[in-house]
Write a structure and sequence with these properties.
Blueprint lengths: L5 H14 L7 H14 L8 H8 L7 H22 L24 H12 L4 H17 L3 H5 L6 E2 L4 E4 L8 E4 L2 H14 L21 H15 L14 H17 L3 H12 L4 H5 L1 H4 L1 H24 L1
Antiparallel strand pairs: 1-2, 2-3
Family: Belongs to the 'phage' integrase family.
Keywords: DNA integration, DNA recombination, DNA-binding, Plasmid
GO molecular function, one term: DNA binding
């Protein structure tokens, strides 16, 4: 153990995490960079805040936000080391200043979604137009991730029972996704067009014109062309509306409706978190504060609660 390098420890941590289902696509690069930095310093023993912060700032960027991003990407590994050796120091996440909040997404209006589907319908070619209209419509009506929709097999789409089986979710988890009857009707119509290509249980549901997997880059390219044609102005913190914002829109609308109906929000949040495949329900609770539309609803409910509390107090 005494001859073990920090790089080997980081590689072992990455391998263990991936076996648990974590992709660590971006984080692994930061971890290996940090481990090599520590090895080059000849550091042994527990990690110190000094060497951790030195690495975070060992970049061409002089922006504290960049240093914070680097630190955030290795903090879980450092915490792991601290639990193992009982001595490694874990710097505060705000040591370089308050971290940037999660960017506010673009929440589509019903008109924008209708425009997107109509524009997809006008794409050249019977199969491509049907594919993109159905794909974008499914994303908007279920909140699926784009990767989940693209990896659906025909055997995963059970229109008779009205549900999908998602096998490519976060952490490799599978889940059942119930479908509204109107969504089943649209998927059934798409299958009618889809019949022009070989159709087996293991075929991809959404296909390219050659019958293979529809590449994500191709889908994003088509979306960008349609978005440009429609001339949408972004309403979030991103430079332009994204495909992933259809997922945000689905969650936001559902939670907003529950708030308006006075539903038991804690139970409702657990339900929608499971439905969309969030890794933790805390990711779903972010929408209560991260979306202006929901902040308005929550504020109105709080005002009503405060007024009711004052009335009860005065009655006493």
């Amino acid at each position: 153990m005494c001859n073990e390098t920090w790089q080997s420890r980081a590689e072992e941590y990455i391998d263990d995490s991936r076996r648990l289902g974590y992709a660590l696509t971006t984080t692994s690069a930061y971890l290996l960079s940090f481990a090599r930095f520590v090895d080059q310093r000849g550091h042994s023993g527990a990690l110190t805040s000094d060497i951790i912060l030195d690495w975070a700032q060992s970049t061409d960027s002089k922006k504290p936000t960049t240093w914070t991003k680097r630190l955030i990407n290795i903090r879980r590994f450092i915490s792991h080391c601290s639990r193992v050796d009982g001595k490694s120091e874990v710097p505060r996440v705000d040591v370089f200043g308050r971290p940037k909040g999660r960017p506010t997404p673009h929440i589509y209006t019903e008109l924008e979604i209708s425009e997107l589907l109509a524009a997809a319908r006008e794409l050249p070619g019977t199969l491509p137009s049907a594919t993109y209209e159905t794909l974008f419509g499914l994303l908007a009506s279920t909140g699926l991730r784009l990767s989940e929709a693209l990896h659906l097999r025909c055997s995963d789409v059970d229109l008779r029972s009205g549900r999908l089986i998602v096998r490519q979710g976060k952490l490799g988890k599978s889940r059942l996704v119930p479908l509204h009857a109107t969504v089943c009707e649209v998927l059934s119509r798409y299958l009618g067009v889809r019949q022009q290509l070989p159709l087996t249980s293991e075929s991809y549901f959404f296909v390219s014109q050659t019958g293979g997997l529809l590449p994500r880059r191709t889908v994003e390219g088509v979306f960008i062309r349609l978005r440009t044609k429609l001339g949408w102005a972004p309403r979030g913190n991103w430079r332009a509306p994204r495909i992933h914002d259809l997922r945000h829109t689905f969650i936001c609308r559902r939670v907003t409706q529950w708030h308006k109906e006075g539903a038991d929000i804690d139970n409702a949040m657990l339900y929608v978190s499971t439905y969309v495949g969030h890794v933790a329900v805390t990711y779903t609770y972010w929408y209560l504060t991260g979306i202006p539309e929901l902040m308005t609803v929550v504020g109105q409910r709080f005002e009503a609660f405060a007024e009711s509390a004052r009335g009860a107090e005065n009655a006493e």
